[in-house]
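Re: weekly structure request thread

Next one in the queue (266 aa):
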Amino acid sequence: MTRLERTWAQLKARRRKALIAFITAGDPDRETTVPAMHALVRGGADVLELGVPFSDPEAEGPSIQAASERALKAGTRLADVIRMVAQFRERDRDTPVLLMGYLNQIERMGIAPYAAQLARAGADGAIVVNLPPEEAAALSDALRAHDLALILLVAPTTTPARLRTIADAASGFIYYVSLKGVTGADHLDPASIAARVAAIRAASDLPVAVGFGIKDGATAARVAMSCDGVVVGSALVDTIKRLAAEPGAVPAALEKQAAELRRALG
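Done, posted below.
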């Protein structure tokens, strides 16, 4: 059983919903990321998503776009992000860590070296925003060879036929993008989310996590009623932005914010 599978099993046994926390690696600087990761876990995060900064993050809203810009300005590259995972693993052997980024970055490194380096660092898988499921076989096979997951995304506009393709190719869990548009948008419809999650469950036995637009504990709790976990990103990134001039204050603020989300989820 992989670390990610074990986490989902433990959450299910405890009847708890997963809190999946996203931050951009290297924001506001490279030194703050690993302490921030540990702080999120202390606050109650069950899974961490570490965004790989990219110059053209087309799926991201203004908050995460700006975070990528700050991280790139700080000199953060894919190799740095992988090193951050390895550093995090020196103290935390249990919390799953996923890298979230774009196929362009992986192809530049090479699919096989990317998978091998993730495994060596102690990562648990990847979310690749612009990877079509029909073209996922090479990366999926490379990751699977190291017991790493490839998490694929389902959108509100995904057709039933395409959902079956995604369900067949995905591992770890399925990430439902809860709204049309980019991260950080603000027009969630819990009833619509519940219906789409039910359709995903009919196509796959994997856990379903919902992200995009979850800003606070109340929203997280409403969304979590119909899924296995929620992904919170822009709200955490906004906290980092607010404290960018005093990065030493970032971990404590993120720990408090994660704890509030965790209490709301139960």
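The domain at 3-265 is CATH 3.20.20.70 (TIM Barrel). The longest helix spans residues 250-265.
Next request, please.
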